[in-house]
Design a protein that fits this description.
Elements: H1 2-8, H2 29-46, H3 50-60, H4 66-91
Length: 96
């Protein structure tokens, strides 16, 4: 095996990928609002989850760490769903 590598791969190939992540606080809030708006439109048009779109855009475009991106996507979805659920259950009389 060593002879094979010396013949066909005479140069050792080393590749390193450096990924730098930014803190979400450094990014302007307007961009996050635009991401949410765009994710809502795409989710409505194609029927896919908005959290998937938001987290992918945060990771790919804004270089947010994946853990923070998922947390931000979940937090952005939680408040509207929770408020709507509370109001609906209050109207139906499930909350006393």
């Amino acid at each position: 095996m060593d002879i094979f590598n010396k013949i066909f791969f005479p140069h050792k190939l080393t590749a390193t990928i450096e990924v730098s992540y930014r803190d979400p606080k450094e990014t302007k809030i307007l961009y996050f609002i635009l991401i949410g708006f765009g994710a809502g439109i795409l989710a409505g048009m194609f029927g896919i989850g908005g959290g998937l779109i938001i987290s992918l855009l945060l990771i790919g475009v804004f270089k947010v760490t994946p853990k923070k991106a998922v947390a931000m996507a979940l937090a952005s979805m939680f408040l509207p769903v929770a408020i709507g659920g509370v109001i609906l259950n209050q109207i139906e009389g499930n909350i006393t």
